[in-house]
Design goal:
The complex is a heterodimer of chains A (176) and B (458).
Chain A (H helix, E strand, L loop, with lengths): L3 E7 L2 H13 L6 E3 L7 H5 L6 H26 L13 H32 L19 E6 L7 H9 L5 E6 L1
Antiparallel strand pairs in A: 1-3, 1-4, 2-3
Helix pairs in contact in A: 3-4
Chain B lengths: L17 H13 L4 H27 L14 H12 L1 H12 L9 H22 L26 H32 L5 H10 L7 H34 L11 H27 L8 H31 L3 H12 L3 H13 L7 H4 L2 H27 L15 H24 L5 H11 L1 H7 L2
Classes of the chains: A alpha+beta (176), B mainly alpha (458).
């Protein structure tokens, strides 16, 4: 028997939340949800873990700080020791207060751009990528839940009956 | 779930549904351009082209075509630079600081304020870049490996800090803005029927599909970007102020400059947001989303920052006398009574006295008056920079070197030209991009929408 994929459409975020809670309580795994905006409270129900992008950002920013320390040391102390108005320039640490603005800016630069690039790559959202939402209305005012028979150990009929018991707006069933 | 007090006025007026929000924001993009837009765009484009002509002339003949002289080596150029950068501060402040404070009213205004930020920072960057004279060598400000011996830029210099601050601010604001735009582009992509539009918005939307995991990441990076953009906003204008504060010129050598410049920047930025939004809400029929409450909130920010700026002016004045340094003291006496006193009093009237009128609720909720005031504040803030820069250097330590400054037609043409380029870009944005963060607005519909609030009243 071919695997089936159910695209269950709801017309309200609260209905979607209630339905997801009811289905998950019956042991059904919701594979994916497509929504026009972030539905708060949905992630723990369908088992989406909190993203670690913030940690990435911190690491990128630390890299930026390290690079800017290395850079200012190399440009201002090591490669050519500048002497501007008799300001100390023999060691990096004596001159460090003057480098704080650049170090800060470069850390923010790396933290922000590193995180955004990671975000785009991990999402797979890049220029020219095809849209994957099953219905164009999911970017307007409809919410679609994707459930497959493959993930759930029950027959398509059982699954359909359980899905229909929720407040469904539209249901499409496809083989894949 | 988040509950909002019923005493608070709703943020979205009328009986809107999610679909209505999409409709209201996307339909102006689908339809033909309105006549008013075409007229405004033509005017802006003509002014922009005139500005580009002036810039080309400047590059051709050199900086001597500006009114600068040996004494006044910085004048309109840096005034315009600081003015534009200041305007560019409201966008990221609205999107980042107000996001951290969970101010939901920002959602109606953040998109256009961010667009304004980006365009204003581009305009700002033009001035120091063209002030370099040989603009094709602008990349020399970056620490690139080179064959000139060990020639590196000076990282002790406030001007070098500025290069890093402005480029970081511009690029981070740009990605912040774009990350928020991606889901809204996807909404347009899935709605429009014309093939070229589908293709165009398809590319811009990066294939966004609205998966739960993607939204989870989206909210996290919006928050983290807001968190790191907030100190960035404050650092950028502080660094701009250090261009002056780290010098030894009387009138510039002031430790109060960083906070004073930052509040001035927010002050002028909000005034520019008011100017743009008051026109936009009317012509694009967005009165349900940007209404009196938003305008009033922004006016309150204007009065707070305007008062901080006022206190800073008076503190500066007092300290110049109290310091006992005759040069410092003279710089300020010269400001309010010297040959350029008219600009000082213009600044005082526009920035300190007139915003105090917003203490009256009747005035701060009056659209016509708000629009008038937003223009006045921007004029005042331009004069603030002019006063700081020109009146400080035209008479400094050596009286035999005192001089006057007279703006040349190229000075004026370039300044007006940047206003034209700015409006050209902003009008293109208003025509082809979603002007409100429509998908973010949907998240507050149920807590702050008028019909939902009334239903919840018991």
């Amino acid at each position: 028997m071919a695997n089936k994929v159910f695209h269950v459409m709801y017309d309200d975020d609260q209905t979607l939340l209630d339905a997801a809670r009811a289905l998950v309580a019956q042991g059904i795994r919701v594979k994916e949800v497509f929504s026009p905006f972030p539905v708060h409270g949905l992630d723990p129900i369908i088992g989406v873990k909190r993203t670690r992008l913030a940690i990435c950002s911190f690491m990128y920013a630390c890299t930026g700080t390290a690079l800017s320390i290395l850079g200012t040391w190399y440009f201002m102390v090591s490669d050519w020791d500048w002497n501007i108005g008799g300001k100390p320039n023999f060691t990096w640490i004596e001159n460090a207060p003057a480098f704080v603005p650049v170090m800060f800016e470069f850390s923010v630069f790396c933290g922000a751009h590193g995180m955004v690039l990671t975000y785009l790559l991990r999402n797979g959202t890049l220029p020219g990528m095809p849209a994957e939402n099953p219905d164009p209305r999911t970017t307007d005012d409809k919410f679609v839940m994707e459930i497959t028979t493959e993930d759930n150990h029950m027959s398509a009929q059982d699954l359909e009956a359980k899905i229909r018991a929720t407040n469904v707006f539209e249901l499409s069933i496809k083989d894949y | 779930m988040f509950k909002e007090s019923n005493i608070r006025k709703p943020l979205i007026l009328g009986h809107k549904t999610y679909h209505d929000i999409t409709n209201d924001i996307v339909s102006p993009i689908e339809g033909p351009a309105p006549k008013q837009w075409k007229i405004a765009f033509t005017i802006a484009l003509i002014v922009a082209l005139y500005g580009i002509g002036c810039i080309s002339y400047l590059v051709g003949v050199g900086i001597g075509s500006w009114g600068l002289n040996k004494t006044v080596g910085w004048a309109w150029d840096i005034t315009n630079f600081v003015w534009w950068v200041g305007i560019g501060h409201a966008g990221t402040l609205i999107s980042a600081v107000l996001l951290l404070f969970r101010q939901r009213w920002r959602m109606a205004i953040n998109r256009s304020a961010e667009a304004m930020t980006i365009f204003a920072v581009i305009m700002a960057a033009l001035f120091p870049v063209f002030h370099m004279g040989r603009v094709w060598l602008a990349y020399w400000t970056l620490p690139l490996p080179n064959q000139f011996g060990s020639l590196w830029p000076n990282f002790n210099s406030a001007l070098m800090w500025d290069v890093f601050a402005i480029s970081t601010y511009f690029s981070v604001s740009l990605v912040f803005w774009y990350v928020g735009l991606i889901p809204d582009f996807a909404t347009i992509r899935d709605r429009v029927s014309k093939p070229w539009m589908k293709k165009f918005y398809g590319i811009l939307s990066f294939g966004w599909s609205g998966r739960a995991k993607h939204w989870n990441r989206f909210e996290e990076i919006s928050l983290v970007l807001a968190g790191i953009a907030t100190p960035l906003v404050f650092s950028v204008h502080s660094i701009v102020s250090m261009d002056f504060a780290t010098s030894i010129v009387p009138g510039w050598h002031t430790t109060i400059f960083p906070p004073y410049f930052v509040s001035g920047a927010i002050f002028s930025g909000f005034a520019m947001v008011q100017t743009l939004l008051l026109i936009m809400r009317k012509t694009m029929k967005l009165e349900a989303y940007i209404h009196l409450k938003h305008i009033e909130y922004m006016n309150i920010v204007i009065i707070v920052t305007g008062s901080i700026v006022g206190v800073a002016y008076l503190t500066e004045l007092f300290i110049s006398d109290y310091s006992g340094v005759q040069y410092e003291s003279y710089a300020f006496i010269n400001r309010f009574s010297g040959p350029l006193a008219w600009s000082y009093w213009c600044m005082m009237t526009c920035n300190v006295i007139s915003p105090q009128l917003f203490w009256f609720k009747k005035l701060r909720t009056n659209l016509g008056f708000t629009f008038f005031m937003s223009i006045i504040v921007n004029i005042g803030m331009w004069f603030e920079r002019f006063v700081i820069i020109v009146t400080s250097i035209h008479r400094d330590y050596l009286p035999s070197a005192w001089g006057e400054f007279k703006a040349s037609p190229i000075d004026i043409g370039m300044f007006i030209g940047t206003i034209g380029i700015f409006f050209t870009l902003f009008l293109l944005f208003a025509r082809y991009f979603p002007v409100l963060a429509l998908n973010e607005l949907k998240t507050i519909l149920k807590t702050s929408g008028e019909s939902y609030k009334n239903e919840n009243k018991h």
